[in-house]
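fwd from M.: "can u put these together and see what the complex looks like"

so here's what she sent:
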Amino acid sequence: MSMVKRSAIVDKLRRKRMLELLAEGKRIDGRGPLDYRKLEVEIGAIEKAEGSALVTLGNTKVVAGVKVKVEEPFPDTPDKGILIVNAEVLPVASAYAEPGPPDENAIELSRVTDRGVRASGMVDLSKLVIVEGKWVYSIFVDVSVLNTDGNLFDATSYAVVSALLNAKIPKYVFEDGEVKETGEVMPLPISNVPISVTMASIEDKLVVDPNGEEEGVMDARLTLVVDEEGRLCAGQKGGSGSLRPEKLMEAVEIAINKSKEIRKVIEEAVKVGKA
Amino acid sequence: MSMVKRSAIVDKLRRKRMLELLAEGKRIDGRGPLDYRKLEVEIGAIEKAEGSALVTLGNTKVVAGVKVKVEEPFPDTPDKGILIVNAEVLPVASAYAEPGPPDENAIELSRVTDRGVRASGMVDLSKLVIVEGKWVYSIFVDVSVLNTDGNLFDATSYAVVSALLNAKIPKYVFEDGEVKETGEVMPLPISNVPISVTMASIEDKLVVDPNGEEEGVMDARLTLVVDEEGRLCAGQKGGSGSLRPEKLMEAVEIAINKSKEIRKVIEEAVKVGKA
Amino acid sequence: MSMVKRSAIVDKLRRKRMLELLAEGKRIDGRGPLDYRKLEVEIGAIEKAEGSALVTLGNTKVVAGVKVKVEEPFPDTPDKGILIVNAEVLPVASAYAEPGPPDENAIELSRVTDRGVRASGMVDLSKLVIVEGKWVYSIFVDVSVLNTDGNLFDATSYAVVSALLNAKIPKYVFEDGEVKETGEVMPLPISNVPISVTMASIEDKLVVDPNGEEEGVMDARLTLVVDEEGRLCAGQKGGSGSLRPEKLMEAVEIAINKSKEIRKVIEEAVKVGKA
Amino acid sequence: MLIDEKGIRTDGRKWNELRPIKMEVGVLKNADGSCYIEFGKNKIMVAVYGPKEVHPRHMALSDRCLLRCRYHMSPFSTTTRKNPAPSRREIEISKVLREALEPSLILEDYPRTAIDVFVEILQSDGGSRCAGITAASVALADAGINMRDLVSAVAVGKVDGKIVLDLNDVEDKEGEADMPVAIMPNLNRVTLFQFEGILTKEEFEKAYELALKSVKKIYKIQREALYEKYFEGEVKVE
Amino acid sequence: MLIDEKGIRTDGRKWNELRPIKMEVGVLKNADGSCYIEFGKNKIMVAVYGPKEVHPRHMALSDRCLLRCRYHMSPFSTTTRKNPAPSRREIEISKVLREALEPSLILEDYPRTAIDVFVEILQSDGGSRCAGITAASVALADAGINMRDLVSAVAVGKVDGKIVLDLNDVEDKEGEADMPVAIMPNLNRVTLFQFEGILTKEEFEKAYELALKSVKKIYKIQREALYEKYFEGEVKVE
Amino acid sequence: MLIDEKGIRTDGRKWNELRPIKMEVGVLKNADGSCYIEFGKNKIMVAVYGPKEVHPRHMALSDRCLLRCRYHMSPFSTTTRKNPAPSRREIEISKVLREALEPSLILEDYPRTAIDVFVEILQSDGGSRCAGITAASVALADAGINMRDLVSAVAVGKVDGKIVLDLNDVEDKEGEADMPVAIMPNLNRVTLFQFEGILTKEEFEKAYELALKSVKKIYKIQREALYEKYFEGEVKVE
C-alpha cells in the first residue's frame, strides 16, 4: 500500500532532508507541520449507491458507497442493525497494490475506520431494526481506494462518514408476515459525526496528514478520532517505530483542534450535496 | 489448457506449413477446411448420473453428467428452475492442466457453453418449478475434460446438450407442506437443441474444429451456436489475434451449415441411447 | 510435520545406528521396542471448553478442547448428533509446521483419530438428539498440537478421548417451539473408550511410540485402535515404505497388549480430573 | 415496452443513438496511464501500470510483453451489493478484454516485462465491458505504450423486436439479444466479439453492421480525449 | 439383510467373490501412461505424467523422483452431486494412494524430476481407492516407469456378521467393517492398510488372510491388461 | 454493575489492580524461544523460530531481519467455538503485535533472515493481545535475539464511569473504553497504542498515565520469569 518505491538510500536522504526542514517548522511539500493538504469531498457521485462520497486529499483519492440489505441480526445483538465497513486498496491505486483479498494493511484500515464510526455511535443501530431478532437493516459501506499518496486512514474515514451522512436508504415494513419495501426512502439515524486526524511521527516530531513520501520514512503513524463533543472515540498507532510517551498527549491536543477544521469541510460538502 | 508444448520456433514453422497447406485447401491432418474430425457420442455412460454423455472428437474426450437437487429459486427468478453448467479441465487431460479451481480458460468454456444452452431456451426452466418462489429443480451439468486436443468448446457443448437430452430426473411433488420424491422419473422439458460450431482463424482463413496444433498457432477462435431453426443464439471470439470484419459473416454461414451435420450425429446418438 | 531436519546422510547414519541397537533389542533413547515414553494426561486445563485435556508424550505435546453447538443434523442421519474431530499442527509446534489450513498430514491425523472414536461407538450419537431431524448436539473436538516429537497419532487420540471423557455439556430442551438452554450440564453419553497404539516399522522391526528421530527414518507407521473389549476398531498404515504381511498380525498382538497399559493411565487421569 | 410507438427508447434515445460519453485522460497520479469514462450511467476508472518487471519471473516472456487485465466491479457499483471477490463473470470479461486489447499493442517492443490494465467499474450500466475497453485503450495510449491502433467498442442488440445500438441496463436485461463488438478502426479488424440471444442471420448481419459503423463515433471521442490532454490549446485535427 | 440365507449377497456374489473387473491400458492420448478401470460400478480414469520437471524448483529432490498423487471424484460420480473442490476424504486418500504406490517404484532412477498420478473417479462404488491403486499401478507401468513390482489392491470387510471380499457401495455403508489392503504380489509386501469397523482379533485375521489371497486375482487381471496392450497377438504368459 | 459501591470489581480487584500473572520460559522443546503465560484467564503459548532462512527468497531484506508475527486463537479458546481460519481481527492484531515488538529488536544484526513469532491463544480473556506481547517479548529474549529492551503491555479502560486497569472479559465487552498500551520500560517509548470507546481528554490522560505506570509491574514479572529460567539458584537482582 506504500506509494513510494522503497530504496534504502533514497529513504535515508529523504528522511534527513525532512528532519532539516522540520527543524525549521517546514515540510517537504511546503506545508507547516499542522497543515492538511487540500481536502475535497464530493457527495453523491455514485447514484446507484444509497449514499456515496468521493474524497480527494492531495493526491490520495477514495470513493465510498453505501448499500443496504435486510438480514437477520447477529445472534448476540438481536435488537441492533448491522454496519459493516470494508476498504479495499484497488490495484488502480498504486504500483504496489496487488489484486486479491485485502491484506493486513487494508484490514487495519477497514477496522480502524469502523471503530471510529462504531465507538462514536454515529449510526444509531437500535433504530435499524424491522423485527427484533428477525429482520434488521444491514448497512455496508464499501471503500474503493483509487490513488494512494499517504494518509489513507483519514481519507477513508472522511469518505465513509460523508457517504453515511449522504445516504437515503429504502424503507421496509413488516406486514402480513413478511418484510416489504415501502417505496419510500429515509436518511440513516445519525447521532454523532466522528472525525479522524492522522499524524506521522518522525524522530518524535508530529506532522498531520502525512503524504506518501512522509509515510515512507516515518517512525510511526498515529490516528485519533474525535467526536462532536471533542471526546476521543478511537485511536491506533501503526508503523514499526516507537514514540515518547508524552507525544501521545500532544497528538490528542492536535487531533481535537484539527478535527474542528475538518468537520466544517465535511458538513459543508454534505450540505451542498443535499441542496 | 493448450495441449501442445509451446515452442516459439516450432510454432512458427508449424504455422508456416499450415498456411502453405491452407493455400491449397488442405490441413495438417489431411482434413479440408470445413471437415470435422470423427465425432462419437456415447449416451448414458455414467449410470449414477441422471443423464450423461461421453463425447470423443478426434483425440479430445469429455464426459458430462447431469445431477439434480431441489433448491430455493434465485430471488430474481422465483418462477424458474436453476441450470448450472460447470466444466473442469482435469489434470488427466493434458500435461498443462493443473489441479485446482477452474482457470480463466475453463471458466470461459463453462460460460460460453452455458450461454448457448440458455439463450436457445433448450431447457424450459419455467417447467422446473415445484412451488413458485420456494422449491425448484436445480439442474447441474458438470463436464470433466479427460483429454485435450483442440476444440473443447464444441466437445463440451455436445456433451452437455447430449447429457441433457439423455436425462431422466426424479419427480418431486409438494404434499402436506413438504417436498417429496415420487419415485417416478421424467425427462427434462426440452424445447430446442443448440449446436456449437467452432472455427480457428489463421491469417483470416477459417477452418472448423481446430485440433490442438491448429489452436497452438491460430490468431483467433470463433464459436457460433445455432438453434433448431437456424438462428444464431450465442457467439464468442477468443484468442489474442484479430480478424477482418467480413470474416464474421462468413463464419455465420459456415456455422449454420455445419450445425445441420452435427445435429444429426447427436440426434442419432440420443436415439440409440434411448433404445 | 516432521520434527527433525531431514538430511539424507544424517538419516542414513541414524538409521544404521538404530538398526544396530534394535538388533540388541534397544532404541536410540534407551527404551525397549515395546516401551512408551512418559505419558502425562492433564484433564480440564481449558476451563472455557466444555471438556479438555493436555497430553504430553515425551516431548510431544497436544491439547484438545470440546465445544458444543445446537445444529440441524446431517440429512442422512436425522436421528444422530454430530461429532467432528479436527487437529491442527500449530506453527508453534515445530520449525517445519507452516501456518495455514491443515495439510494432508494433519488431515490424515484428524481423520484416523476420528475413525477410532467413531468406529468404537465411544459417544452414543443417538442420545445427542434434541428434536429428531431438527436439532441435535454438535460436538467439536479441536486439537492444537503444541510441540512435535513423533507419534502425533497416539497423543492426539489420547487427548481427544480424554477431553470427551472430561466433557460436561450444557443441556438443552425443546419447549414452546424453540430450543432452550436449561442451565444444567451433563456428561457425554460414553459407551466405549478406544485406545490408539502406534508403531514404527524399520526393516520390519516394530517399535511402539516412535519419537521424532525414529519417524524420520522409519519405513512405515502403523496405527491400530483397540476398544474396551480388546477388539480392533480402526487402523492405518502410513509412510512411503512397505511391510511383510505377517508383521500386521504381530502389530495387532502388540496393540491389544499395550492398549491395556495406556487405558489405565487415561482412566486414572480422568478420575483425578473429576475428583 | 422498451421502445415506444415513436421508436423512442426508455432513456429518450433513437434506435441508432449512443448514450452520452465523457472521457478524461490521466486522472490518476500514480498510474503510468489512466482514463476515467462515463458512458451512460457507467462510471469506470482504468489504470495502466507498466511496462514493468514480471513477478514471478518465470512468467515473463522472452520475446514479448506479458499483458494482464483485470475487470472488477466495486461493491457499490450495482443495484444489489456486489461481493468484492472476483465472480466467474468478471474473470471471463477480464480475459476477453485482454484479448480485445492485445492485437492493438506492439508487445514485441517490451520483451520480459508486463503491462497491467485495471478496469474498475465504479458504477455499472449496460455495456460496461465495451466502455471499459474503450477507456483502457486510451489509458494504454496515455501510458505511452506502442500501439498499432486504438480499440473502440460498442454493443448492439435487439429490443422489442428491433435492432438497437448501445443497450442500457434495462435493455441489456430484458432485451432479446446483446452483441458487444470491438474494432481497431484504422486497421479495420475485429478484436472482440461476443453474442447472446436469438437472431436470424439477417438480424445478426444488420446488428453487426450497425456495430461496425457506430464504433467510429466512439473512436472520435477517444481521439478527442487524448487531444484534450496532450494538445490542449493547439489546433485540433478533425 | 445384505446376505441371504444361501450366503448370496445383494449383487449375487458369494462371500469370497470379486465383482467384474475390466481394464484398458493407454486410453488417453496426452498422458505418458493411462489406464481405465471398471470395477463393479466404479469407473475410474488414471493418467500418469512424468518423469518431468518440478515446479516450483525447490520442491525437487536431489536423490530421487518426487511422486505426487491426486484422487478426485467428478461431481456426477456419486448419488448426490459431489462438490468439485477436494474434500478432506479425497486429500487423505490421495496421500495413502501415493504411499501405496511409492514402494513399487524405483524413484532413485529419476532424480530431480516429478511423476504425477491422477486418479479420477467418474463413477464411484465401494472400493474406489483399491480400484484406483490397481489402475494407477498399471498406468505407471504403461508410462514406462521403472518398477519393482505391480501394486494390487482389494478391500475385505464384515457384512451381516460375515467376513466378505470386495465390498460394494451398500455393503461399504451398512457393513460392520471395511479393510482396504494393497500388496506387491511378487515381493509379498503390504503397501496400503486401512481399517474401520469392529472386528475381534480372530475376525481381523480371517479378513486379512482373505485380502492377501484375493489380491492375487487382481494382479492377474492387471497383467492381462498390460499384455493386451503390449503383446496382443503374441503368446500369453500364464 | 461491574464495580460495586466499595469500588470492587466483579473479580474482586480494585480499580488499579492487575489480575494474577504466571509466566514460564522455555516450555516448548522445538522452538528457539518460548514462553507460556497465564494472565487472568488468558492462557497463551508463544513460540519463536529464528533467525532462519527466508522462503520465498525474494522476501528477504538485505539490511535487516524480516520479523513475522501470527496471533491465533485455538477453536476452544472462546465461549463460542472459534473458526480456526484467521479472522480479520486476528490479522489486525498480528500486525500491531509485530509493530509493537519490532522497535525492541536489533534486526540489523540478522540481515537476510527471518524471525517468526507465533502467539497461540489457548484460552482467551480480556487483554489477550497485551498478554501476548508480554509473553512474546520474553520468548524473543529466550531465543537469544539481540534486543534494546523488553516490551511490556497492559490495557486500561473505563468501566461504570471509572478508569480501571487491566480489563477482564466482561469489562472489555461491557465497558465504555479500552486502551491497550505497550512500552519499552527502560527506553521509555511507546510501541503499541490502540483505543476504542469514548473518553474526554481528561479521562484519556488519566487512563494513559495509569497504563504507563502499571506496565512497570508487568516488566518486573517478565524479568523474574527470565531469571527463573536462566539464573535459578543464583542471587536474584531486585
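replying to her w this: Chain F is about 25% helix and 30% strand.
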